[in-house]
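quick q for whoever's on today - can somebody do inverse folding on this one?? i tried earlier but teh output was garbage lol. tokens:
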């Protein structure tokens, strides 16, 4: 496995607390409750009583004169009033389109992505613009090996993203610039099987049986805030009376090139004899060369790919 392939499997950034993510979750729940309040208030409003006057039929004031044309006139008036009643009922029974005012209506979505499992809250800004914000979380273990050294990495992805959705065609296709805030950590134990060969830099070693080489590895991104750009299909806030949608997105976040740090201790042997990694300058020089090679490979991939699919419900 090459070092470049690690980029898509080992994602890490920062080692700070989750205070911002917790605050953001509270804010999302608050906005959702406010939206429910607005919806209930709108449903409690009663339409003006404008139907009753239109349903009233005109009753003739005089009945003492009859003519041959009277049945024809009555049929015509009856037909006219019947059409008025039908049109009135149709107009008032039609469903109203969702409000386009910010925070007057919202949508909640759950999704799975390369950032992990997440939840999002969206509200409209204008007819062709939405704003979304959500949080994601993912944790898993991933074992791999490089040049004879085995790593058992434990990854914890914690992130939050806010995007502005623009629908240039007025349909489901959207372009979504945004910001990704991440607090990711990667920790790993590094080991070399006893009596096996491994390479650091341009130097080959034979691992000791009595005191095998072992250590730790970490991957860190240079900053927590990253610009991102997504393209996708599906509107979590459809401009009709549909409630359920399945949005799909793909794009990248410019996280900057990650850096790897490795610390090793133990005893290994070369053709010149056995040395302690912690005390021998030549062994430490070989270790630094290996770390530099890995980081040079990571510089070629300064972005993190994002692919997601979810289910959204518009209230």
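ok took a stab at it. sequence:
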């Amino acid at each position: 496995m090459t070092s470049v392939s690690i980029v898509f499997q080992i994602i890490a950034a920062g080692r700070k607390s989750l205070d911002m993510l917790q605050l953001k979750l509270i804010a999302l729940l608050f906005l959702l409750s406010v939206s429910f309040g607005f919806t209930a208030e709108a449903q409690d409003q009663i339409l003006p009583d404008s139907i009753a006057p239109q349903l009233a039929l005109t009753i003739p004031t005089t009945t003492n004169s009859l003519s041959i044309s009277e049945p024809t006139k009555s049929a015509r008036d009856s037909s006219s009033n019947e059409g008025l009643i039908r049109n009135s009922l149709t107009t008032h029974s039609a469903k109203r389109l969702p409000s386009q005012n910010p925070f007057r209506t919202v949508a909640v979505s759950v999704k799975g992505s390369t950032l992990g499992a997440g939840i999002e809250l969206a509200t409209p800004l204008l007819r062709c613009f939405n704003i979304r914000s959500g949080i994601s979380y993912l944790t898993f273990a991933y074992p791999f090996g490089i040049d004879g050294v085995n790593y058992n990495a434990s990854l914890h992805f914690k992130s939050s993203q806010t995007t502005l959705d623009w629908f240039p065609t007025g349909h489901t296709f959207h372009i979504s610039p945004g910001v990704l805030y991440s607090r990711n950590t990667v920790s790993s134990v590094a080991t070399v099987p006893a009596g096996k060969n491994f390479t650091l830099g341009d130097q080959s070693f034979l691992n000791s049986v009595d005191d095998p080489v072992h250590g730790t590895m970490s991957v860190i991104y240079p900053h927590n805030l990253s610009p991102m750009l997504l393209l996708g299909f599906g509107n979590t806030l459809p401009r009709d009376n549909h409630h359920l949608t399945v949005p799909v997105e793909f794009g990248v976040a410019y996280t900057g090139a990650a850096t790897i740090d490795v610390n090793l201790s133990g005893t290994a042997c070369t053709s010149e004899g056995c040395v302690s990694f912690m005390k021998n300058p030549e062994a430490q020089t070989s270790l630094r060369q290996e770390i530099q090679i890995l980081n040079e490979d990571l510089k070629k991939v300064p972005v993190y790919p994002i692919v997601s699919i979810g289910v959204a419900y518009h209230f």
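fwiw Residues 149 and 192 are 5 Å apart (CA to CA). also Residues 1-18, 42-73, 88-94 have pLDDT under 50 and may be disordered. so keep that in mind when u check it
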